[in-house]
Design brief:
Elements (H helix, E strand, L loop, with lengths): L1 H6 L1 H23 L3 H27 L7 H14 L1
Length: about 80
């Protein structure tokens, strides 16, 4: 049973990375000055959102709870770095 969760640990980490990247792209799009750059950054945020949903659905289909608390911790770490 432990092996089952160890195999999906990488997917959980990838899920957290997708959440974080989505937030970063979205925030960057808010700060972008040109329309083309805003569109590109918003497109990338949507792509990361799609990826995170795909990974989350895969984990749910295998009865594994996706990690979300780590993404909140990462968000706090990033906020501290931005200050």
């Amino acid at each position: 049973m432990k092996k089952k969760y160890a195999d999906f640990d990488k997917l959980n980490r990838l899920l957290v990375a997708c959440f974080e990247a989505e937030k970063l792209y979205y925030n960057a799009a808010q700060d972008a000055q040109t329309t083309d750059l805003k569109r590109f950054l918003n497109y990338m945020a949507v792509e990361r959102n799609r990826m995170s949903h795909d990974i989350s659905n895969e984990l749910h289909s295998r009865d594994i709870e996706p990690l979300k608390q780590d993404s909140e911790k990462g968000n706090l770490d990033r906020t501290w770095q931005e200050i």
